[in-house]
Write a structure and sequence with these properties.
The protein is of the alpha+beta class. It has five domains: 13-163, Hypothetical protein af1432 (Orthogonal Bundle), CATH 1.10.3210; 215-351, Beta Polymerase, domain 2, CATH 3.30.460; 405-481, Ubiquitin-like (UB roll) (Roll), CATH 3.10.20.30; 491-657, no CATH class; 665-741, Alpha-Beta Plaits (2-Layer Sandwich). Helix content is 50%, strand content 15%. It contains 28 helices and 21 strands. The strands form six sheets. Strands 1, 2, 3, 4, 5 and 6 form a six-stranded mixed sheet that branches. A four-stranded mixed sheet has the order 13-15-14-16, with helices on one face. It has a four-stranded antiparallel sheet with strand order 19-20-18-21, covered by helices on one side. Strand 5 (324-329) and strand 6 (335-342) form a beta hairpin. The chain is globular. The model is unreliable at 1-14, 121-126, 359-368 and 588-594 (pLDDT under 50).
Length: 747
C-alpha cells in the first residue's frame, strides 16, 4: 500500500525512511477499515506530521513515530477510524499550538472531542503536582465516560511511552513508573485489557526497581531451564487426556509475570523458591460445556489443590473476565495452574472493553455482558462527578473503585451484584440506588440481622431495610469502601450541615463582635453593602452565607473576622460601646458568658463529641473549632484538648450544656472482673438494669491462667449522675473488682 508523503518539507533521509516505514507498517494493519476511513486516517497522519515537523523524541527519532506507534496499538484493537485519527493527533493540541476549532473543521467534532479528552490541562494554573494530576485525570475520566475510546487511546499512549522509557532522563523513571502502577495499570485491568495491564506492570517494575527486576529475571530464567522437561511432559499428558475425551483443544503455556511474582513474594513474605505457581497452562475450547468437561478430565489426571478452584464463568469478574481456574499437583509435587475458557472468553480476557470492537463479527453473550459491565463502571464515575466538585476529592473517590478485587452478592430477587472486596452493607445499599443508601437503617444477610458495617462475603444474600426519612450517618464514612457511597454521604451531610453551620457561625460572629464592643451585627442593606463587600474581600468568601458557614465549620476564626469588621465599622464612625466592652472582658472567664453555645444533643453534623474523652451532661466542657470539622466538644480535663489549647487557643470557645438535653450520650467505662462462667452476662445485666445502653464491648487479650480480665464498654447515659448509678450497679456484682469511667472514652 502506498504511503502518502507529508505536506511539509521532507525531513532528513534516514529519518524520513524511519517515518515512512512505520506508517507503512500501520497501514498494513488497517485492512478492516472502509476506504473512506482509511483516507481519513491518512489525512490525520499528514496533518500530525506537519504539526510535529522538526520535533524529536529523546531517542533522536522524529516525534511523529510516537503517534504512529499509538495508532498501531489501537489498530491491533480494531478501533474505528475516528479513534485512530485521535491517536495520531493526540499531542497536537498540547505541543503544536493547534486549537480544538481547527480539528473540528478538518476532522469533525467527534475526533476533536476525543483529542480534547486526551489533552492535559497545561494552560490552567495549579498549586501542586497532585492537583494538576487529579484535574487532568478527572477530565480524562469524564471524557472516557462519554466515550470509552478515549481511555483506550490513552492506554496505548502510556504503553508506548513505557516501552521507550529508557530514552527518558533517569530522574523521571520513578514518578512515571509509580503513576503507571497506581493509575494506568489498574484502569487497564478494570476494563479487562489484561495484556496491556501485564505489560504496563512489567515495564513499570523494570524501571521502578531495576535491580530487583534483574535478579528476579535471572532466577526465573534458571527455573525455566530446570523445569522445561517437566512442563512439556505436563502439556503432553493433558493434551492426550483431553483429546481421548473427544475434546477439540488448544493448550498453551503461561508464565507468571515478574511483577506478580515480586508482589506475591513481598505481600506474603515468601522466598522465590516458595512461589510454586510460576507456570501454568491455558486451555481454549469450543463451547462453555467443554470447559466443565475438561475440568473433570483434568482432575482425573492430576489431584486438585483444595480451595484453589474458581468458577469465573458462572459468575464473571466485574471487568467481564470469564474462565475456570484450578490448581493441581503435577509431577514431582509441582503446583500447576490451569485456566479453561472459550475463544470468545479468551478475546475478552485479553482485550476487555476493546473486545467490543474486536468481536463485532460474531457478538455473543460474553461480548454483550462485557460491554454492559464496562459501561456500568464508567457511568458510576459520572455519578461521583455529579456529587463532587473538588478535583482531589474526586480522585480520592475514584482511586477506591480502581482496584478490581470483588465479591459477588445477591439481592433478595437473586440479582448478582459485584462489590469491591471489603464493601459493607451501606456500600451495597448505595450500589442499589442512592435513595436506598440514604434511607438504610438496618439489614439482613442470609436472613440474619447484621450491623450496617458488616463486610460482604461471596454468595451473601443481602436485604436492606429503609426508613421514610433520609438520614445518612457521618460515622458511615469510617467504614464504607466505594467511592459512590462516600461521595453520596458527604454530599448529603454537606447539604444538611450548611444551614446548621451558618446558624452556628452567625452566633459565634455575634459573640465575637460583642467582645469588640459592638452590640449587633450590621444588617444587610444598601447602606452596609460596601462594608460587607470589603469584609468578604478580606476573608476571600463568595458571600455572607459562605462566610458564616466557614466560621461555623472552623475554617475561619470568628475573633479575627470580628476584629476586621469592627475596624471597618470604626472607619465609618461606629465606635465600640465602652460599657459592653468592659462587661464582656469582665465576664470572659465566667462559665456562663453571654455568648456561650448551648449544647443539648439535637445538633447534627455541625457539632461533634470528641471520641478521645466522650463528654456527657454534667461534665465541665469546652468547644474547639477544628479546621473544617465544625465544633468539637471536649471535657475540660481532656489531655488532647489541653494540648490543642496550648498551641491553638484562639480556636476554643465557651460551650455549656442545656438544662434539658434531648438524648443520651456515649461514654466509656472499664470493668475489671474475676474470670468465671457467665461473668460477662452478669456485667451486661448490671448495666442494663441501671438503664444504661451498651453500644460497644471489647475485651483485653486473655492470658492463660490469668485470674482477672478487663472489659471495656461504650455505654449511652443521660448525664453524669446516671453514669454514677451505672457504676454503682456494676460494683454490686460479686465478680466485679472495680468499675470506673475511662479517661479516654475509647471503650
Amino acid at each position: 500500500m502506498s504511503v502518502v508523503p507529508p505536506l511539509s518539507a521532507a525531513p532528513a533521509p534516514a529519518a524520513a525512511r524511519a517515518v515512512a516505514a512505520s506508517f507503512a507498517a500501520l497501514t498494513e494493519k488497517l485492512a478492516y477499515l472502509s476506504p473512506e476511513g482509511l483516507e481519513q486516517v491518512r489525512k490525520a497522519y499528514r496533518y500530525a506530521d506537519e504539526a510535529h515537523l522538526g520535533q524529536l523524541r529523546k531517542s533522536g527519532e522524529p516525534y511523529i513515530t510516537h503517534p504512529i506507534a499509538v495508532a498501531a496499538q489501537c489498530a491491533d484493537w480494531k478501533l474505528d477510524a475516528q479513534a485512530l485519527c485521535a491517536a495520531l493527533l493526540h499531542d497536537a493540541l498540547e505541543d503544536c499550538g493547534i486549537t480544538k476549532t481547527d480539528l473540528v473543521e478538518r476532522f469533525g467534532s467527534q475526533v476533536a472531542e476525543l483529542v480534547d479528552g486526551l489533552t492535559k490541562l497545561d494552560k490552567l494554573e495549579f498549586t501542586t503536582r497532585e492537583e494538576n494530576q487529579a484535574e487532568s485525570f478527572r477530565k480524562m475520566l469524564l471524557a472516557m465516560a462519554r466515550d470509552v475510546r478515549v481511555i483506550l487511546v490513552k492506554l496505548a499512549d502510556r504503553s508506548h511511552n513505557m516501552r521507550t522509557m529508557g530514552d527518558m532522563p533517569r530522574e523521571k523513571w520513578g514518578r512515571i513508573s509509580r503513576e503507571t502502577l497506581e493509575i494506568y495499570a489498574p484502569i487497564a485491568h478494570r476494563l479487562g485489557l489484561n495484556q496491556t495491564y501485564r505489560e504496563l506492570q512489567e515495564l513499570a517494575f523494570q524501571y521502578l526497581l531495576p535491580w530487583r527486576h534483574k535478579v528476579l529475571a535471572k532466577a526465573v530464567q534458571r527455573a525455566r531451564q530446570r523445569r522445561r522437561d517437566l512442563m512439556q511432559r505436563v502439556q503432553q499428558e493433558v493434551e492426550n487426556a483431553l483429546t481421548q475425551a473427544g475434546l477439540k483443544v488448544r493448550v498453551s503455556g503461561r508464565e507468571k509475570t515478574l511483577y506478580s511474582i515480586y508482589r506475591k513474594m513481598d505481600t506474603k513474605h515468601l522466598s522465590f523458591a516458595q512461589v510454586t505457581d510460576i507456570y501454568g497452562f491455558r486451555i481454549i475450547l469450543p463451547e462453555v460445556i467443554d470447559c466443565y468437561t475438561a475440568l473433570g478430565v483434568l482432575h482425573q489426571v492430576y489431584k486438585p489443590v483444595p480451595g484453589r478452584f474458581k468458577d469465573h464463568i458462572a459468575i464473571a469478574k466485574i471487568n467481564g473476565y470469564q474462565s475456570l481456574h484450578t490448581t493441581v499437583v503435577g509431577p514431582s509435587g509441582l503446583n500447576v495452574e490451569f485456566q479453561m475458557r472459550t475463544e470468545a472468553m479468551n478475546l475478552v480476557a485479553e482485550s476487555g472493553v476493546a473486545a467490543h470492537w474486536l468481536y463485532k463479527s460474531a457478538p455473543g453473550a460474553s461480548s454483550a455482558q462485557q460491554e454492559a459491565t464496562g459501561t456500568q463502571w464508567l457511568q458510576s464515575l459520572l455519578d461521583i462527578q455529579d456529587e463532587t466538585r473538588d478535583a482531589a476529592e474526586f480522585w480520592d473517590h475514584v482511586k477506591v473503585d480502581l482496584f478490581p478485587d470483588a465479591v459477588y452478592v445477591f439481592t433478595p430477587k437473586s440479582r448478582i451484584m459485584a462489590m469491591p472486596r471489603g464493601a459493607t452493607v451501606v456500600d451495597f445499599a448505595y450500589a442499589v440506588h442512592s435513595d436506598v443508601g440514604d434511607r438504610v437503617i438496618a439489614a439482613k444477610i442470609n436472613g440474619e440481622q447484621v450491623p450496617l458495617r458488616t463486610e460482604l462475603r461471596n454468595g451473601d444474600v443481602v436485604e436492606v431495610i429503609t426508613s421514610t426519612v433520609p438520614a445518612p450517618n457521618p460515622a458511615w464514612l469510617g467504614f464504607v469502601r466505594t467511592g459512590r457511597a462516600r461521595s453520596k454521604i458527604r454530599h448529603h451531610l454537606k447539604t444538611l450541615a450548611l444551614s446548621e453551620s451558618k446558624e452556628l457561625g452567625h452566633k459565634l460572629l455575634a459573640q465575637a463582635l460583642r467582645a469588640e464592643g459592638i452590640e449587633t451585627m450590621p444588617p444587610i442593606n444598601d447602606a452596609n453593602q460596601g462594608l460587607w463587600d470589603r469584609l468578604l474581600r478580606f476573608t476571600g468568601s463568595k458571600n455572607r452565607e459562605e462566610l458564616l458557614a466557614d466560621i461555623g465549620l472552623g475554617k475561619r476564626v470568628a475573633s479575627i473576622v470580628a476584629k476586621r469588621l469592627a475596624a471597618l465599622m470604626a472607619e465609618r464612625g461606629h465606635k465600640p460601646d465602652a460599657l459592653l466592652l468592659s462587661r464582656e472582658r469582665f465576664t470572659a472567664h465566667e462559665t456562663l458568658s453571654q455568648g456561650a453555645v448551648v449544647i443539648d444533643g439535637s445538633e447534627n453534623a455541625s457539632v461533634q463529641f470528641a471520641p478521645c474523652c466522650r463528654p456527657i451532661p454534667g461534665d465541665a466542657i469546652l468547644g474547639y473549632l477544628g479546621r473544617g470539622e465544625g465544633l468539637v466538644v471536649h471535657r475540660e480535663e481532656c489531655a488532647t484538648a489541653q494540648r490543642l489549647r496550648h498551641k491553638d487557643s484562639e480556636r476554643f470557645i465557651t460551650v455549656v450544656w442545656s438544662e434539658e438535653p434531648v438524648r443520651a450520650f456515649e461514654t466509656g467505662i472499664v470493668v475489671t472482673v474475676r474470670n468465671g462462667k457467665g461473668v460477662l452476662a452478669r456485667v451486661a445485666q448490671a448495666i442494663t438494669s441501671a438503664e444504661g445502653d451498651i453500644s460497644l464491648v471489647s475485651m483485653a487479650d486473655q492470658v492463660s491462667g490469668q485470674e482477672a480480665t478487663e472489659l471495656r464498654f461504650v455505654v449511652s447515659v443521660e448525664h453524669a449522675q446516671h453514669l454514677q448509678s451505672v457504676l454503682a450497679s456494676l460494683r454490686r456484682v460479686p465478680a466485679v473488682v472495680s468499675a470506673q469511667r475511662t479517661l479516654s472514652g475509647a471503650g
